[in-house]
């Protein structure tokens, strides 16, 4: 098969992953892996070197040596879109190894060898392995340096919890990393003598993608790698009587997070629906927040440096309610998925 004939397969590409974006003119070194039916290509362009992985619908039993591809503009635009709308999970396989992966379908994960630092820099290293979603343990999607929570960002929730609605400046608190649990893990209630009023709070969480300090509001969303789901489980009786929120927010397992990071979604317009044992208890949208997400990011960066992987929980809409042992809590955010946890 000639290089020209090989290039005709490009419109039939059903899967594309990129490391770096380049434009004409491009020289490509490529090899075909008959065991995976993938072509692995090295792209050399004006802006550096990238890698491209194509799976073709045809039966290209060939090995390409060196191919000149001077007209990739259209295909690269398509790849850019795919790059920005990926659903990324972090998981432990059956051998105990931890990987990041891209969810291709409901039950298929494309395994990566990339670290989180490489992912936020769009360095996607695909190792050729596919795993079933149901065969692995989904972990928290990132290991942050800090979890920052914004309180009372929805007027209805502020009123129902005795807070102040329509704040001029954010109400801020931190959640300990020991509170984090993954999708499908259990929320463990504290003993009754410590708290007897634990409540759910479904939220959209931002995952920071690059280091930032004193960020301008108009640049704030550029620092967001993607969005995930958070349940800010709260001992309400303690937050009402303590002078600050650390104890009421900080019990182990009080921070369900996940199941994935989704890139390319607009965090300022996402619907949040929380169900308790199948009954809808929260139904809100981030467009109802009294303080905008870009403002929150900018304001926070004046206080503390944001690091890649940091979690910013944007606050809960109204409908926070008590949970008890045996309950099932599902926080669903449009375009992201569902975070499901049982209560014990």
What's the main sheet like?
Answer: 12 strands, mixed
Radius of gyration: 22 Å
Fraction of residues in H or I helices: 10-25%
Compute the average pLDDT. Answer: 82
| N to C succession of SSEs | HEEEEEHEEEHEEEHEEEEEEHHEEEHEEE
Give the end-to-end Cα distance, rounded to a whole number of Å. 61 Å
Structural class: mainly beta
Sheet-strand content, in percent, reads 35-45%
Question: What can you see in these coordinates?
Answer:
With 344 residues, the protein is mainly beta. Helices cover 14% and strands 37% of the residues. It has seven helices and 23 strands. It has helices at 3-7, 73-84, 116-120, 155-160, 236-241, 246-249, 293-303, and strands spanning 15-19, 26-33, 38-45, 48-55, 67-69, 87-92, 98-105, 108-112, 126-132, 137-138, 147-151, 171-175, 180-181, 198-199, 202-208, 224-231, 234-235, 255-262, 271-276, 279-285, 311-313, 328-333, 337-342. Strands 6, 7, 8, 9, 10, 11, 12, 13, 15, 16, 18 and 21 form a twelve-stranded mixed sheet that branches. Strands 1-4-3-2-5 form a five-stranded antiparallel sheet, covered by helices on one side. A four-stranded antiparallel sheet has the order 20-19-22-23, with no helix packed on it. It starts with a helix and ends with a strand. Mean pLDDT is 82; it is low at 1-30 and 36-83.
Topology of this structure?
Layout lengths: L2 H5 L7 E5 L6 E8 L4 E8 L2 E8 L11 E3 L3 H12 L2 E6 L5 E8 L2 E5 L3 H5 L5 E7 L4 E2 L8 E5 L3 H6 L10 E5 L4 E2 L16 E2 L2 E7 L15 E8 L2 E2 H6 L4 H4 L5 E8 L8 E6 L2 E7 L7 H11 L7 E3 L14 E6 L3 E6 L2
Parallel strand pairs: 11-21, 13-18
Antiparallel strand pairs: 1-4, 2-3, 2-5, 3-4, 6-7, 6-10, 6-18, 7-8, 8-9, 11-12, 14-17, 15-16, 15-21, 16-18, 19-20, 19-22, 22-23
């Amino acid at each position: 098969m000639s290089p020209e004939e090989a290039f005709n397969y490009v419109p039939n590409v059903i899967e594309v992953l990129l490391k770096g974006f380049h434009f004409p003119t491009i020289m490509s070194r490529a090899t075909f892996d008959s065991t995976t039916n993938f072509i692995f290509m090295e792209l050399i362009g004006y802006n550096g070197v990238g890698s491209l992985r194509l799976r073709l619908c045809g039966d290209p039993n060939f090995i390409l040596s060196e191919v000149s591809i001077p007209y990739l503009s259209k295909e690269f635009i398509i790849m850019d879109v795919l790059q920005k709308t990926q659903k990324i999970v972090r998981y432990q396989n059956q051998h105990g190894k931890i990987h990041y992966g891209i969810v291709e379908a409901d039950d298929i994960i494309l395994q990566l060898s990339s670290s989180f630092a490489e992912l936020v820099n769009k360095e996607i290293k695909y190792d050729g392995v596919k795993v079933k979603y149901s065969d692995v343990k989904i972990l928290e999607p990132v290991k942050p340096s800090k979890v920052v929570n914004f309180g009372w960002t929805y007027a209805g929730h502020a009123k129902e919890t005795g807070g102040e609605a329509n704040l001029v400046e954010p109400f801020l608190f931190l959640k300990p990393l020991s509170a984090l649990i993954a999708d499908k893990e259990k929320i463990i209630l504290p003993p009754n003598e410590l708290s007897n009023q634990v409540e759910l709070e479904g939220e959209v969480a931002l995952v920071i993608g690059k280091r930032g300090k004193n960020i301008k509001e108009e640049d704030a969303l550029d620092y967001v790698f993607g969005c995930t789901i958070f349940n800010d489980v709260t001992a309400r009786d303690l937050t009402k009587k303590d002078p600050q929120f650390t104890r009421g927010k900080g019990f182990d397992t009080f921070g369900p997070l996940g199941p994935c990071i989704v890139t390319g979604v607009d965090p300022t317009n996402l619907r949040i629906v929380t169900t308790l044992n199948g009954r809808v208890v929260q139904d809100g949208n981030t467009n109802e927040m009294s303080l905008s997400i870009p403002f929150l990011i900018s304001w926070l960066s004046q206080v503390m440096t944001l690091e890649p992987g940091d979690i910013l929980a944007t606050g809960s809409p109204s409908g926070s309610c008590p949970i008890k042992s045996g309950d099932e809590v599902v926080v669903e955010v449009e375009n992201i998925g569902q975070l499901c946890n049982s209560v014990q």
